[in-house]
Write a structure and sequence with these properties.
It contains 10 helices and 10 strands. It is of the alpha/beta class and 234 residues long. Bound molecules: adenosine-5'-diphosphate and magnesium ion.
């Protein structure tokens, strides 16, 4: 579904990606793992054309390289950035409606909101509450929920576990697994928490200073002690 080849990205003089290759199969749930500063966020930004890059990025066989970020969203790629990015002064439900703002099929929006509340019952309970007053975990759930309102085919998640208590992370990851299996949303999730991400994902890539240094089935990577110690630090 997504094919990334020889991706290079720079911030001014600073090079962040050095020829990265990555492929996602439709329906898969893939983890992109790596230490702080390895280039995970930059990879997601490059896919969405939010940072200048070279190389090829194909989605469904078509190039994303010359498309605007908005255009890429319209193709069905939803990006949940690092640090959540909900509209804090708006209510939960207003945030969900905003997520659907580019959709043509307005009739499906109300039923999608109910569908999403089934995944995240706490958001239904809090639907009139300002997003900024939610707990960290609830805000992250809202960020994911808002992205789902696009009815994306591919969802890119940047460190959804960041700053959340382990119990909340497990709950969130369980829901991500359901979204992947039941709604058939292909997911690429960036994580520093390798152990939890490998439990969730079917496949994983490990990135180190802007290059992929390891890839394979998540279960194989998790059970390889050398890989875990060398690259994942647990
Ligand atoms: N806006 C920026 N300006 C300059 N350098 C940046 C910027 N954003 C990221 N970088 C650099 O690019 C590299 C990769 O960063 P990033 O993709 O954010 O890593 P990760 O998400 O894996 O922690 C790092 O060396 C970082 O310092
Ligand atoms: Mg990052």
């Amino acid at each position: 579904m997504l094919n990334v080849r020889d991706l290079r990205a720079h911030y001014g003089q600073v090079q962040a990606l050095y020829g990265l290759d990555l492929a996602l199969e439709e329906g898969s749930l893939t983890a992109l793992l790596g230490a702080n500063g390895a280039g995970k966020t930059t990879t997601l930004r490059a896919i969405c054309n939010m940072v200048r890059s070279t190389g090829s990025i194909e989605f469904d066989g078509g190039s994303l390289s010359n498309r605007s970020t908005e255009n890429i969203v319209r193709l069905g790629i939803a990006h949940v950035p690092q640090g959540r990015g909900t509209f804090t002064s708006m209510t939960v439900e207003e945030n969900l409606h905003l997520g659907a703002i580019i959709r043509q099929d307005k009739s499906g929006v109300a039923s999608d909101i109910e569908h999403i509340y089934a995944y995240f019952p706490v958001l239904k309970v809090r639907h009139t509450q300002q997003a900024g007053t939610l707990s960290g975990g609830e805000q992250q759930m809202l960020a994911v929920a808002r992205a789902l309102m696009l009815r994306p085919r591919l969802m890119l998640l940047d460190e959804p576990s960041f700053g959340l208590a382990p119990m909340i992370v497990r709950e969130l990851f369980k829901i991500l697994g359901k979204i992947n299996r039941e709604d058939k949303v292909t997911i690429l999730v960036v994580e520093q928490n390798a152990q939890l991400a490998l439990e969730l994902a079917d496949r994983a890539y490990v990135i180190e200073t802007g290059r992929i240094v390891m890839s394979g089935r998540a279960a194989d990577i998790a059970s390889n002690d050398d890989v875990r110690r060398s690259y994942l630090g647990y």
